[in-house]
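Risk register update: the risk that structure generation would not scale has been downgraded. Supporting records follow, first protein first.
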Amino acid sequence: FSATQQLRAWEVGNQRIRTPVVALTAHILAEHKERARQAGMDGHMAKPVELSQLRDLIEHWVAQRDQQNRTTSTLQAGV
């Protein structure tokens, strides 16, 4: 949790794009998901993780990053 908080502070301080961080834990209770969210994590996966779940999550964040890059390029081009 502290590593994620440090990463978020670094991203803000260096004007970097947010890096997706997902908690991978054996805990499935809502309070654990909320703790991860409060620490700055973007998602939560409970073990055992199925490869299809992991693939779906990675594809989601890749699509988000692609959208951010398109938006940034459009703004920089002044379109």
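Supporting record for the second protein:
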Amino acid sequence: DDFNTLRNSVWQHASTLGGGGNFEFEWYTNNRSNSFVRDGTLYLQPTLTADAIGEANVENGYTMDLWGGDPASLCTGNAFFGCERTSGNGQIINPIQSAQIRTVNSVNFKYGRVEVRAKLPQGDWIWPAIWMLPVNGEYGKWPASGEIDIMESRGNLNYPAEFGGGVNTIGSTLHWGPSFDFNR
């Protein structure tokens, strides 16, 4: 994609508080503060949830409900309490908003090549990633049908090398196996 525009027919936004299997702290939104195109470049940019709902609500007494609302913001992933969460009693609303875009309903291929040119962000708690996931779970639930992590990195500038390094380290992974506990 040349990203002259953000083509909604190709790219769909995730909308979830779930954090995936890594229990990430971001809330994926369909908000132009978090994803936009300018001068042929796609920007995925984090913002603070407290700026939207207030610091006190992030920590106590607020319910974030992604079940309703406009169609573009409906929850896309309920795993790990992704569609509704209430702050309080040690549970917080995800403090960072960001964007995850995907082609789950628009692009798939059996053979080919993927080229990506990306500038990765720096900052604590940031984990940029580019993944390829199956359209259909032909062989069962994750990881049985596979996953290709083209790139994952840490945004931490000073992350110790003995724990995988920081911004100067990337990784790629193939996930497969009959079940989560046998992921290879």
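The mean pLDDT is 89. On this basis the risk owner (M.S.) recommends closing the item.
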